[in-house]
Specification:
Number of strands: 8
Radius of gyration: 18 Å
Protein name: LON peptidase substrate-binding domain-containing protein
Strand content: 25-35%
Structural class: alpha+beta
InterPro entries: Lon_prtase_N (IPR003111), Lon_prtase_N_sf (IPR046336), PUA-like_sf (IPR015947)
Shape: globular
Number of helices: 6
Largest sheet: 5 strands, mixed, barrel
Pfam families: LON_substr_bdg
Length: 208
């Protein structure tokens, strides 16, 4: 994956609980707060057009987020923006700062995530014959639907990253998926979270 810009040391931050952007994935976002409309306007004036998606954590922000490049945006009749971010790289947040902008900016370190800017990962150990039955049970239990033909045809990384982003896990679980070092690690954690939910984890009613 090639980009015609250098990764900046400081980026605007968009804190969203329960929203994570996985490497080489895309995420649609609905921007309507004035401060984040200003953030979008400022980002579009830069060469990189990066916005750092990061989850709130405790009284602050998570240690790791993912920066996405604004690749599409459209304005609604009432002035809101629908945007699409394409992942560029995860980052480690060094410091979040309040400055002259109405939104937070972050000093960030990209050095641990060089793999994010390369081609898609493979997961040779992935067993769809084991994953899909679990996933079907999970989706049925949560009254969710999916395009199973498209899921069957999806590449390993696209499938695992998409599930990690859209399934209704807790913010902490989504953060753990984001921080997984490799695709295989993410797939193992994802499958474990599904199995845990199916066995009534977190004091939920048993689903199996």
């Amino acid at each position: 994956m090639m980009f015609r810009f250098d990764l900046p040391a400081r980026i605007p931050l968009f804190p969203l609980p329960g929203a994570v952007l996985m490497p080489r994935a895309r995420i649609p976002l609905h921007v309507f707060e004035p401060r984040y409309l200003q953030m979008l306007d400022d980002a579009l004036k830069t060469d990189h057009r990066l916005i750092g998606l990061i989850q709130p954590e405790g009284e602050g922000l998570a240690a790791i987020g993912c920066a996405g490049r604004v690749v599409a945006f459209s304005e609604t009749d009432d002035g809101r923006q629908m945007i699409s971010l394409r992942a560029v790289s995860r980052f480690r947040l060094v410091e979040a700062k309040e400055g002259f902008t109405p939104y937070l900016v972050g000093d960030v370190d990209w050095s641990s995530f060089g793999r994010d800017m390369k081609g898609s990962e493979d997961d040779p150990a992935m067993d769809r014959g084991a994953l899909f039955p679990l996933l079907r049970r999970y989706m049925e239990a949560h009254e969710l639907s999916t395009d199973w033909d498209a899921a069957a045809d999806a590449q390993d990384e696209a499938l695992i990253n998409s599930l990690s982003m859209v399934l209704p896990f807790s913010p902490g679980d989504k953060q753990a998926l984001l921080e997984s070092p490799t695709l295989a690690d993410r797939r193992e954690l994802l499958q474990g979270l599904i199995e845990f939910a199916l066995h009534g984890g977190d004091n939920e009613e048993r689903l199996q």
